[in-house]
Amino acid sequence: MSDLRVRFAPSPTGFLHVGGARTALFNYLLARKEQGTFVLRIEDTDVERSTQESVDAILQAMDWLGLSYDEGPFYQSERYDLYKGKVSELLDQGLAYRCYCTPEELSAKREAVTQSGGKPRYDGTCRERTDQPDEPFVVRFKTPQEGSISFVDRIKGTISVENDELDDLIIQRTDGNPTYNFVVVIDDAEMGINLVLRGDDHVNNTVRQIPMYEALGYKVPEFAHVPMILGADKKRLSKRHGATSVMVYREMGYLPEAMVNYLVRLGWSCGDEEIFSMDDLIEKFSLDNVGRSAGVFNPDKLLWLNEHYIKTGDSQRLGDLVTEILVGQGVTVNDGPDMTAVIKTLQDRAKTLVDMADGARFYFQAPSSYDEKAAAKFLNDEKRGVLELLIKHLGELTDFTLEDVEGAFKAIMEESGLKLGKIGPTVRVALTGGTVSPGIYDVVAVLGKEAVMVRLQKALATLELVRQ
RNA sequence: GCGCUCAUCGUCUAGCCUGGUCUAGGACAUCGGCCUUUCACGCCGACGACAGGGGUUCGAAUCCCCUUGGGCGUACCA
Q: CB of A151 under 7 A from strand B?
């Protein structure tokens, strides 16, 4: 057990997106690797936008990814007393002050300053004010005006900003609610977080937060800022780039291990290795190999990884997952062939679980109609003999193992003088309704004698019908 | 605009810190071939990058500077 304490602190204003998931993953990995503690904190100080649904969605997504936490979830909305106390503390010590400027005045000033080419910072109007009129006010933190602030980022190295670039941050709103930059400091400190590992977009906040740690008498933690994830156009990843919610990927038939593997490799590497299990990662992950530049989210590679994990995954587990999808689509699975056997015929040719479900459906539902083109080509009158032969030879089998099936096909080929290429497609259409399926011997063997005979007979009957 | 920051194949990256072993390696994608009863898988191969310009050095992808480009921030959002 080390004393490393990290945290993931999402704000519940939507689902867990891939960027947040990666941040959570990095934190989780580090905590597990160092046998430290992973804290989950919900940053819901924005009452307007925070929802319980979002909290649930985030929790669910973390669970799906396998990112378990050791403490929390803590809700900032339940810690307002703590924050209020800290505000008074700073006020009493003269490290913060009441500001009576209205939002309108502020934005007007900001606009004016921007127009004239200046920096849009708070001008300090109320900084030295001593009266306390009975008017709405916010509380601002007195940011040091001289010198500069720098810190050593574990990923980016030394970062330094002149204090005159900073202005006095609002730490408490007119309505009495504290703001993000303030509570994050208090919480990270009070929760004993000693490494703040978060997104790149917080680098600028860090230099604002450090003086607050100091003012509050807290020890400044270490920081590590992971680069952003961008879309294909190098703009910040958003909905218009396609799915950004990790749970949407689950719905699209992705495996959590594929998502984890993809996310970790976006910005981190370990030599030439591409495939990592969670255990591998816990062993190998390190901040030292995290890159400093933003990365583009590449759905193709995610898909490839998913393909990989489907190919190498446990058939039983995959079967359970596919069953879920099939049942959801109203397909009855119980009285069909063995699901694990079905899955094994599909693992090499599916990219997602949804693909797999699509490919598995015919095993459980006899084709209600045949693909038109396929039927015209492979289920026409010329194929009558082939069908009859199939029915005869397969009907004679007592066992329906892969070997038996193969044997029967061999016999048919000998008797008819036809090659498999002349027989296979017909069987496929008769059995599956289309031209795409796993290997035909597999299909026949897994489908089982009863279903095969029924479907073959039906195909033959269809031929009769057409003939009349 | 200002501040912070980043910069190797289309994309993710190795290499950079500790210059020479880099005619820059791997992966995804793309293209071609092989395999083949369909679709796939698999296998083999091809294409493809050190952003540009200056330095430093015997020698730079690696160190320094400038330029350009990208990202982030600049809220009573987080």
A: no
